[in-house]
Structure formats: C-alpha cells, structure tokens
Amino acid sequence: MALSLSSPAFATGTAIPERYAKAGANDQPELLISGVPQGTVELTVICHDPDAPMPNGFTHWTLYGIPAGTTQIPQNGEASFRPGPNDYGETGWGGPHPPEGHGPHHYFFWVYALDAEAQGMPDRDSFLRDYAGNIIEQARMVGLYER
C-alpha cells in the first residue's frame, strides 16, 4: 500500500474552508496518514503554497517528530509533535492568506516518510536539502484557497 495523505476537512483539489485560513479561526486541519512504508523512522509534514508571489513560494507549516505509526494528526493537535517554522515568522500552523484578488492558490500538504529522525526544526528549504537522501516515500494532497 502506497503512502497516502488525506483530510476530513477538505478533499484534495477542493477549497480549504475559511476556518483554516489565517483570517478565519486559523485552525490546523486534521490529517490522516496511511500506507507508511517499512523502514520509516519518522514522518514530517509540510504545507507549502507555490503560488505565493515570492521567489520560493510560502511555507505555512512544518511539523516534525511524527512517529512512524501515526495515522492521524488531530485538528489543532500539532503540539503532540514538533511544530517548526513557517514563513509568517511563527512556529506551527499558519493558515492560507494569499493577496486579495490574486486568484486561487494551491496549498500542497506533503507527508514525508524518513529513514532517520529529522533534527531540530529546520525551515522547509533546509529540510528538503538536508533530508532528501532520507526520504523513503512522499505523498501529497492539495487544497485551494483565494481571497
């Protein structure tokens, strides 16, 4: 069974509800993980908006220290793991907040199965650079949001 990521909050390819947006309640959506491959030591989750008008897009969430046997990240349950930096200059979930009138943005939620523990709380770019060789498998789901 392949690694899979889903959410009861929204289906992949559909709109992310307002409650999860930065200007809404800024709730962190619940995620469901299945098909974790053999040899996985730890999981990492990242949410990234490549449509943001910035050179490297905008990272909304980095989450580390997720045990390999985890099947659910509960809504607003990130504190059970190790929230890392986002591009708001904060730690943990920072919901969608694209520029008004910029059109729909795509929010890629990635889960990475690693054969080693991620150390510390790297930003997205550092994680991808430093742990590329430790990624066994990855999966994604995409939500849409516009203001």
TrEMBL record:
Q: Which organism is it from?
A: Thiohalocapsa halophila
What SUPFAM superfamilies does the record tag this protein with?
A: PEBP-like (SSF49777)
Give the matching NCBIfam families: YbhB/YbcL family Raf kinase inhibitor-like protein (TIGR00481)
| Protein name (database record) | PEBP family protein
Under CDD domains, the record lists:
PEBP_bact_arch
Q: Give the superkingdom in one word.
A: Bacteria
Which InterPro entries does its entry note? PEBP (IPR008914), PEBP-like_sf (IPR036610), YbhB_YbcL/LppC-like (IPR005247)
Any Pfam family hit: PBP
